[in-house]
Structure formats: structure tokens, C-alpha cells
Design goal:
The complex is a heterodimer of chains A (114) and B (115). Chain A is mostly beta strands and 114 residues long. Helices cover 0% and strands 55% of the residues of chain A. In chain A, strands 2, 4, 5, 6, 9, 10 and 11 form a 7-stranded mixed sheet that branches. In chain A, strand 5 and strand 6 form a beta hairpin. Chain A is globular and about 40 Å long. Chain A starts with a strand and ends with a strand. By secondary structure, chain B is mainly beta. Chain B is 0% helix and 53% strand. Chain B is globular, with a radius of gyration of 14 Å. The chains are: A mainly beta (114), B mainly beta (115).
């Protein structure tokens, strides 16, 4: 009964490659997010979507492109991977945009760029 | 700008004892929410406790409670009767409604519970 799932859990790739991380939630939530956790464990929001519409786009390089085909899915595509992209990427979802809502996190995807 | 500061990078506590993790925040919004998330070695982010800024009463969840000092913009987490399973990174976070409308995290406190 996984609530928020991500695939893959681990991703090792070479610099310059293009890769995607998939996220799915079965909670019926309207809002989904991507976070990046760096090597010092600092967690920062990258994007948020509400009902498939982009709401938050932090100062993330254009090489990162989120795609929400439907409310239950939010994928992250990364072009021309760089060493600095190595991090753990978390997907999350919540019932809506309101701050009172708990955000449910996926298990994370550890991306290593060589 | 919305900021969250955790001044204790690491802490340790003996099993069954009580420990308090500190957090201060800053926001210009009057309507905001504060959270403590736990990240054990499994990497999973788990909500521990939540506080609405408009509520004066401190939130409690079993062994976890907060000390919310609104004027001081302080939001500390107290863990009573610490258990080995409490060993984790703990992140304080805030969400300002009507402002940036995003969850902003502190840098975390690594808590180790010793047997």
C-alpha cells in the first residue's frame, strides 16, 4: 500500500546523460512536489504542481523539467547531467496547497553523477 | 524571506531520557504552520508533529511535544523517554500561507539515542 512511490530508488549515470525519475501517489492528492536533498542533508523545494498546473518553480536550471501527465504522477526529467546534480530527490504530495496539509514524502531517489 | 534555523547540528541522548531540539524561524506572514519531520537512516521523511501559528496551545503527539514561543519565533521539539528508534535527522520546517506558500526546511539536527 505504498502512498508515494518513486522509481528508481538509485540512479548512477555519467555526466552529460539525460535521465528521468518517476513519481506516483495513490492518495488522491491534488498537489505534488519535487525536493532536492544535497550532500549536507539540506532539503529544498524545486517544483510544486496543483491539479497538473505548475505552481512553484524555484531557481532551478532549465535542464530540470517536471511533467505531470495527471494528478497522480509527477515526473522529473534532467538533461545534460552535471556532477552537482548528485543528490537525493524526493517526491511528495499533499491534499492541497494549504499550509495545514501534511506533505507525504516518497522514499527518495539517490542520483549519482560520475 | 522565510527562514528556519536549527543551531544544533548534532545531539545525543541516553535511552529513556528527554532531549530538546531547538528551532527558530522568521516570516512576515501572520498565518503560518510549523512542522518537525524525522528522517531515519532509511531516508524516509516522516511528519512528527505540526503546529498552527494561530493556536496558543502547544502540540503534542505521544512522546513528542513542542514549545511554541510565538513572540520569540521559537519552535523547539521535546522528545520524552527517548528510544533507539528515535535516532534520526530531525528537520524543522515552516509554511507561510499567503507568502511564499512553500515548505522551508532548517538544516537539520542529527539525533543519536545511545543504549
Amino acid at each position: 500500500d505504498t502512498a508515494v512511490s518513486q522509481t528508481p530508488k538509485y540512479l548512477v549515470t555519467q555526466m552529460g546523460n539525460d535521465k528521468s525519475i518517476k513519481c506516483e501517489q495513490n492518495l488522491g492528492h491534488d498537489t505534488m512536489y519535487w525536493y532536492k536533498q544535497d550532500s549536507k542533508k539540506f532539503l529544498k523545494i524545486m517544483f510544486s504542481y496543483n491539479n497538473k498546473e505548475l505552481i512553484i518553480n524555484e531557481t532551478v536550471p532549465n535542464r530540470f523539467s517536471p511533467k505531470s501527465p495527471d494528478k497522480a504522477h509527477l515526473n522529473l526529467h534532467i538533461n545534460s547531467l552535471e556532477l552537482g546534480d548528485s543528490a537525493v530527490y524526493f517526491c511528495a504530495s499533499s491534499p492541497g496547497l494549504a499550509g495545514a496539509n501534511e506533505q507525504f514524502f516518497g522514499p527518495g531517489t539517490r542520483l549519482t553523477v560520475l | 524571506a522565510q527562514t528556519v534555523t536549527q543551531s544544533q547540528p548534532e545531539m545525543s541522548v541516553q535511552e529513556a531520557e528527554t532531549v530538546t531540539l531547538s528551532c527558530t524561524y522568521d516570516t512576515s506572514e501572520s498565518n503560518y504552520y510549523l512542522f518537525w519531520y524525522k528522517q531515519p537512516p532509511s531516508r524516509q521523511m516522516i511528519l512528527v508533529i505540526r503546529q498552527e501559528a494561530y493556536k496558543q496551545q502547544n502540540a503534542t503527539e505521544n512522546r513528542f511535544s513542542v514549545n511554541f514561543q510565538k513572540a520569540a519565533k521559537s519552535f523547539s521539539l521535546k522528545i520524552s523517554d527517548s528510544q533507539l528508534g528515535d535516532t534520526a535527522m530531525y528537520f524543522c520546517a515552516s509554511f507561510s500561507q499567503g507568502g511564499s506558500e512553500k515548505l522551508v526546511f532548517g538544516k537539520g539536527t542529527k539525533l543519536t539515542v545511545n543504549p
